[in-house]
Amino acid sequence: MIRAEEPLIRVEGLHYTYQAGTPKPIPALRGIDLTVQAGEYVAVIGANGSGKSTLLRHFNALLLPTAGNVWVTKWNTRDTVHLRDIRSTVTMVFQVPDDQIVASVVEEDVAFGPENLGVPEDELHQRVDWALAAVGLTELRHRASRLLSSGQKQRLAIAAALAMQPRCLVLDEATAMLDPAGQTQVRKILHQLHQDGMTIISATHNMAEAVQAQRVVVLSEGRIAIQGDPRFVFAQEETLHALQLDVPYPTRMARMLATVIRDFPTDVLTVTELAEAISMHLGQPLELRPKPTTGVR
Amino acid sequence: MSRRTEFEFLGRVTIGQYLPTGSALHRLDPRTKLLVCLLLIAVVVASQSLLGIMLLLGAVLIGLALARIPLSFALSGLRAMLPYLLLLALLQTFAIPQYAANATVLWRWAMLTITDRSILAGILLIARFSVMVLGLSLFSFSTTTTELTHGIEHLLRPWQKLGLPAHELALTVNIALRFVPIIAEEAERLMKAQASRGADFGQGRNFIQRTRKLLPLLVPLFLVSLHRADNLIEAMEARCYLGGKGRTHLIHLQAHAADYLALAAAFALMALVIGLSTANADQLLWRLLSTYL
């Protein structure tokens, strides 16, 4: 994996206020310092109104800081000369599937971003082919975009972002409107992309998704409340509860079991880890059967 | 198919629907169809000859058959407009006589006069509208909205150098068309939500009453649409959209022999109709008929 000298995204003293300069300013971010290295997987969690979406929109200059600075590699997001560079380095996937699809045919929507960048034609076709394959939509490329399911639409939105060939993919609650199967598929795609070296920043309410990140950043009222690897963050159940956040189900269950079973580990994050902990306690080693593959249809 | 409920908006309008029959007409280049359609409208408006307009009507009907569109389906779109057409034709009939110099008065009562010319004008109006509605229906039955927007963009592209925003226009049309079903669904959802809390959109006694009942729907619908527009703009900006300048294109339209053939046939027919109109063919025909009958 190529690790750049400088961080991919660097945020320093970021303040952002909606309706700044009006009688009713609404402060959304109050002093955020954050760096994201190339190849990292960062989950951003926080209650509604904690500033997740506002923070994410600063990563590709959709919003500019009221105070402080954001750098994407060497470019300051205030520097409009580099707007194209910034937005093709960091691309975004939004929450509502319907509101981010521009074209009425699947492959044409994927092409919309690179078309804007003026990518030459033969490369354009290659990029579209690659992006559709990455999210498993190759067979639906000529389909009308409005006839897709919500999950497929969101995969299309990811493909459209990937076709820009970004170094970093930012997702703003991209799975919030999907059914469980759709959520799982998107999660798998993100996992695979990360394996292939893509930097991923994902705001989510879904703790199962946050667990697969390398680092979890917890926002509260426009500030970073806790950050660290998932095991560190989700160990602080009381703090999280105070911020109206949950820990993953397996973690919660392990904590319940720990109240009756002495020395039961409470730092489990996934179902597999929980099952292993229980079987260890029972003295019967767990033979994990390979999970039936749901696959990306 | 189940009966439509009062909440369904789509499916009532036939114009603007696409019927994938895979006919030769469907496979034509959208630019060809766009040009023929524009030409048809221009000629049908310009032509004073009923004979010519009937020829065009015949041509459109043949087009419908070629596209394998059920005639009853095509006509159902026209039927919805019939009351308005008849009203317009009636107005036309009474408005014309003052301007016709050598018209024969057939009936006169106070201010109202009917002449042979004015009846012809009424008939012409109905014929013209029928050709236009059927022609546009045929276009929409055989052309997807995507093809339409590609056609518009390709046709306007030569004028881009003169400052015409070809890409922007095409994109606007495309997005507007893409959001029609989404907004319709939204309206349906709002209506159901309001109806479940006791609002009544049912049978008002007349058109005005029923329209007034829809007013509480407009404000939330506008808000929702503006919100969606906001989201879409953000998504487009995030994908580096800065207007048409410097863009490349995934899709390139390709005209084939069939397109040139279709264009040639259309031009020939239109020329004939214009010729009939300027040669006063109707009067010749009328005179011939009245001599022999």
Describe the protein.
The complex is a heterodimer of chains A (297) and B (293). Chain A has 297 residues and is of the alpha/beta class. Chain A has two domains: 239 residues, Rossmann fold (3-Layer(aba) Sandwich); 39 residues, no CATH class. Helices cover 37% and strands 20% of the residues of chain A. Chain A has a six-stranded mixed beta sheet, with helices on both faces. In chain A, strands 2-1-4-5 form a four-stranded antiparallel beta sheet, with helices on one face. Chain A is globular, with a radius of gyration of 20 Å. Chain B is mostly helical. Chain B contains ten helices and two strands. In chain B, strands 1-2 form a two-stranded antiparallel ribbon. The longest helix of chain B is centred in the last third of the chain and has 32 residues. Chain B starts with 23 loop residues before the first helix and ends with a helix. At the A-B interface, helix 2, helix 3, helix 4 and helix 5 of A face helix 6, helix 7 and helix 8 of B.
